[in-house]
């Protein structure tokens, strides 16, 4: 996204507009449309700024090596008698040095189930942070080890990336699990995209997630 105009992709260009229409048609969701409308013009721009941050000279946050496409289809898991023995990440084509918010926001949108997002967000984030800290200590890293608060501040700082993923990418968490659906059709065909955005399961999750994003200040300018 840091080198391509995201608006050339129909699902990015049309997703938010379609979603606002769909939310407007539902009494319990239409209240979020003005909030989305107030920030939608910033989502792509701020996300691209985040991707370019390391090369801009403005390094005032935490920077790590991000995988860039962190979801289950890019992970190999080895088990022995139902015990996890190894995990390997695949497909590093869009790895990027930048805020940990890049992979964290993406993982919570694309990797985890609705139940995990709803019930285990804090637990999973705590697990990531403590393992990150332990790894830095084991490798005898001499610099500052980020605190829990500092990692959470990164997520808040790059909230527009998290909101962009919620509004444009969350639907793929549902289309990926249906082997009869062609992801390319959803990405390239606006009519199919709109139909997918009306998925009752997706809308049910938005009923849970949109209030959380609102209460956590993700719609603030």
UniProtKB/TrEMBL annotation:
InterPro entries: CHK_kinase-like (IPR015897), EcKL (IPR004119), Kinase-like_dom_sf (IPR011009). Signal peptide: none annotated. The chain crosses the membrane at residues 160-177. The keyword Transmembrane helix applies. Keywords: Membrane, Transmembrane, Transmembrane helix. Residues 6-138 form the CHK kinase-like domain. The keyword Cell membrane does not apply. PANTHER family: CHK KINASE-LIKE DOMAIN-CONTAINING PROTEIN-RELATED, PROTEIN KINASE-LIKE DOMAIN-CONTAINING. This is CHK kinase-like domain-containing protein.
